[in-house]
Amino acid sequence: MLRFLFISLLSLLLITPCATAQKRTTQSIKQQQQETQREINATNKKIQDNTAKTKRSLNQLNLIEAEINSHEKTINEINKDLAAINKRLDAIQDSIKDGEKRIATLTDNYARAIRSIQAQSSSFDRLLFIFSASSFNQAFRRMRYLQQFSSWKDKQIQEVKLQQEILEKQRESVNEFRKLHADKLAKQNNERMTLVKKRKEQSKVVSSLKKEGKALQKVLAEKQRQARKLDDALNKLIAEEERKAAERARKEAEAKRLAEEKKKQKETSELDLARSPSN
User: Fold this and answer.
1) pTM surpassing 0.85?
2) Is 135 helix (H, G, I), strand (E, B) or coil?
3) Distance between start and end Cα atoms, the chain
């Protein structure tokens, strides 16, 4: 008994939708039209929102692209500056080498002079060197020579120290200049890499929004197709109802005409019967 009831209920559930689908009325179609129109309006709203979001995302992407181009321009300028700095550094390095050669020459001359004096001072000291002169003029010249040599020696030492200080300052200046530009270049490259990553992420957002927009357009096209289909169904149903109404009116008119003819025939027959000689 329970199995029979279950089968009966299942059969009823399967049959009912079919019967409902076959029995479409003007009111049900209009309700479907209203629901479809609401869905179309909602889809249009989503499309408008998607279009606005896509536009904003594209604007952000364009701004990022402009920033990347600006950084690349700055990087190119820094690279040009570094090339000029390296060229300047090569020139300074050449000057440094020339200065080092000069220092080496001065040092060598000074060393040879010292060795010469030391060779002389190994036999007698300076006073003996002066007083052993054969004349006063010779002794005076020897004294002047020792004074001039001492002055020359001090001057050579000062010049060597000065050249060393100049070269050291040049090295420090060039290295500081290169470090400054290298830091700028590193900063620009880091910012550019950050922007490139941001551009990649923003491109994904734009691509996703465009895909969503295409999907919404497909949904809208399907809803519009359904709306046209409902319009056609409603028009056909109205036309069928009008045809049926016209058919009923024609049949009613025909029945009325036949009834009137029958009535006239009856009245004529009765009139003829009343006029007959038997009466």
Assistant:
1) no
2) coil
3) 78
